[in-house]
Amino acid sequence: MIDYRPVFYVIGILLTVLAAGMGVPLLVELLNGNPNWRVFAATGGFTVFMGVTLLLTMRAPLAQLSIRQAFVLTTTSWLALTVFAALPFAFSDLGLSFTDAFFESMSGLTTTGSTVITGLDSASTGILLWRAILQWLGGIGIIVMSIAILPMLQIGGNQLFRMESSDRSEKVLPRVVQIAGGVGAIYVVLTLLCAISLWTAGLGVFDAIAHSMTTIATGGFSTRDASIGAFANPTAEIIITGFMFLGALPFVLYLQLVRGRPALLRDDQVRWFCWIVAVLIAIVALTHYLNNDIGFGRALREAAFNTLSIMTGTGYSSTNYANWGTFAIGVFFFIMFIGGCAGSTTCSIKVFRFQVLYETAKAQMKRLIRPHGVFIATFNGRPITDDAASSVMSFFFLFALTFAVLAATLHFLGLDFLTAVSGAATAICNVGPALGEIIGPDGNFASLEDSAKWVLSAGMLLGRLELFTVLVMFAPWFWRN
């Protein structure tokens, strides 16, 4: 029998933090004289009441958290936070149904960036800030989860990073709490640097802060319907491109860099990521330049911004890339599935899994030529165990199967083929905008049926928690002693 007390205790802590976050837009709305402050006051009060109640009634030792408890905690905490975070949207003057509010909340906390809100340019400052806060909290949450929880649960090959940190000489910090504190400090510093840079580039203070929070989180929620393109600010685009890149790198390596161990550029995953980004930007920029009557400098800037935005799952757009030609559209669709580095704020498949797949396939091909030879696949100079390789292969299979099921379900619900397929991809990869006229870079998800929004919300959760974490709870044997 699973002891749920530690699970509810941690959820109580998270709800209390979420309630504190609601206090920021509350103050902003109050200062602006917007009646939405009452909404944030009521929902924040209810959230903190539930959080404190769980803290007082569910005290339990957290040091002995079992594997099953960790699985249950990860999924239920994300769902609980999504429900409570949806309350300000549901009761605000936006007029959203609970389905729309839940979708917006799930998109925020999973740093997906898909939205059902129209008229962002005229939305209240508090609502826009709440969207940014959700993505910012979701970004730091996924970093800590990828460092502390996923390696322990051996999800999709993440045990590779547990193996790397098992040697005492290479530990970043001795305890998870310290790691979370160090990562949080770097996360805050990068957010501040991004905000200051955007402000000096000409954005207003509020826009600079909101976009810095959603950029570092690689989330993509903007304060404008036209996203970054609404500002027509090339300097801001360049700054955001740089910070999206930084958000896609492993934050643990930033900690090592701060502590005097410059392992960032020596990391195989980072090098792979840099090469993939460089090659893709060059290809898209050349295509954009040849197909449109613009200068190469502008083509390069727009290609770098939108390519990195889609690949990292940020989901900003500076222009309607649907007009760049069919080749560029095809590239954007496929790079949704790449993602960034493990231990970053990005989602999707992630670069390290492609590395493991490549190294394993290379070793296998060498064995075909020299059957008696000994060929060992490696990652960052260390052997890839059969367990880790099998875990990565299983992830690829489950990812493809889940994507196919989501796309088929959306198509069955009445969406056209392009909308269904790209919608499934953008949900499970946590990208944001998809392709087509409805949910492409110039559209949003408001016109979809409620059933499609619930399917997409499920896809966001599955993608953010790396599939196994959620799906294992549907197996009957998971609940048996």
Notes on the protein architecture:
This protein is globular. Among the domains are: 1-94, no CATH class; 263-335, no CATH class; 356-479, no CATH class. Helix 1 runs antiparallel to helix 5 and helix 4 runs parallel beside helix 19. It has a two-stranded antiparallel ribbon with strand order 1-2. Strand 1 (378-379) and strand 2 form a beta hairpin. With 481 residues, it is mostly helical. The protein contains 20 helices and 2 strands.
Chain-wise SSE layout:
Elements: H1 5-32, H2 36-57, H3 67-91, H4 98-109, H5 125-148, H6 150-153, H7 159-165, H8 176-200, H9 205-216, H10 234-247, H11 251-258, H12 268-291, H13 296-311, H14 326-335, H15 351-369, E1 378-379, E2 382-383, H16 386-412, H17 417-428, H18 436-439, H19 450-464, H20 468-471
Antiparallel strand pairs: 1-2
Salient structural properties:
mainly alpha
Overall residue-averaged pLDDT value:
88
Give the SSE order as H and E letters: HHHHHHHHHHHHHHHEEHHHHH
Tally the beta strands: 2
The secondary structure category is mainly alpha
Task: Give the spatial strand order of the biggest sheet.
Answer: 1-2
> From the alpha-carbon coordinates, what is the Rg to the nearest angstrom?
22 Å
The portion of residues assigned to helices is: 55-70%
Report the biggest beta sheet as strand number plus sense, adding barrel if it closes.
2 strands, antiparallel
Figure out the total of helices: 20
Strand content: under 5%
Low-pLDDT residue intervals, each spanning 5 or more residues: 163-174
Shape: globular
Distance between the termini: 6 Å
